[in-house]
Amino acid sequence: MSVAIPIIVSAAVLAIGSWRSTQRGHIMPPMITLFDELERQARALPPKEKATLARILIDALDPTVDPGVEQLWINEAQCRYDVFFGAS
Asked: What tens digit of pLDDT does each residue of 11-28 get?
């Protein structure tokens, strides 16, 4: 019967999923990782701050962006705005 207990515990650990077993057989609850905490905080941000954070992270992924491209998009947006609202 002592053999059945570890099997049942192992099945329970597998069913729970994120619970971990130590080398000594102790079962540990899931630990919040730094990533999980950062994600939780990011999701709690107001929309404008989420957008700012997203922009910073995206910019960090591609640091080779041509600085002139930003000004080109600003100019394009201004032209579209002017056309839409009938400015000359």
From this structure: 444 444 556 666 677 666
Co-location of 54 and 69 in the same domain: yes
Say whether pTM exceeds 0.70: no
Range of the domain at 3: 1-31
DSSP state of 25: S
Alpha helices in 1-88 (DSSP H): 4-16, 34-43, 47-61, 67-85
**CA 61 and chain centroid, separation:** 14
Higher pLDDT, 18 or 42: 42
Assess whether 26 and 42 both reside in one domain. Answer: no
